Amino acid sequence: MLRNNSSFIGKNEFGRLIPAIGLLVCLCGLFSCGSKKIIHNTIYHDEPAIVALKQKYASILHVEKNQIKNIALYQSIDKWTIVRDSNMAKLGSLNVSFIQYLYYLNLRTKLPADFKELYEARKTYLFKDCHFLEEGDLVFFKENYRAVKEVGFYLDNDVFVAADAGGDLRFHHLRDSINRFHVISNAKILKDVE
Hints:
With 194 residues, the protein is of the alpha+beta class. Helices cover 40% and strands 19% of the residues. The protein has 5 helices and 6 strands; from the N terminus they run H-H-H-H-H-E-E-E-E-E-E. The termini are far apart.
């Protein structure tokens, strides 16, 4: 007596087919991971105010316009004189107040209001080598013709910005450190946890 096992044979062949299909899908996925993908170049237009801001700071820092990335930081620097004029009575040392202002707005970190306290703060990690400076680091310096020590905010390309005693901003280049000022130390600030 012969039995027709066609349904059994069909199920058995289908059972072998599923792993083969799975293996084929895995191999296709594996080989397509390394394929070159075409990325469409999208044109991004900045607002005219942003373009002007980038152009201004690109010329100050001697870099290309597209290297100005932290727009909020540079906008904060531009707004400093308005903040200074509206809060003149409340601000202590305008030099340290400028650094506090930038750190609080852009890095969400509170800093001490006094130069010495800032220099000796637990969150201040001092170092001497200027080659390790990154955007947001501090530069503690003393100008040759003044006895007052000051602090600056490092931007890029060996340029840092500091507010003078009157609160006006001055951009310094580290190559001028021999003629115009002496760098006491540099510092990285441990940022507050949000």
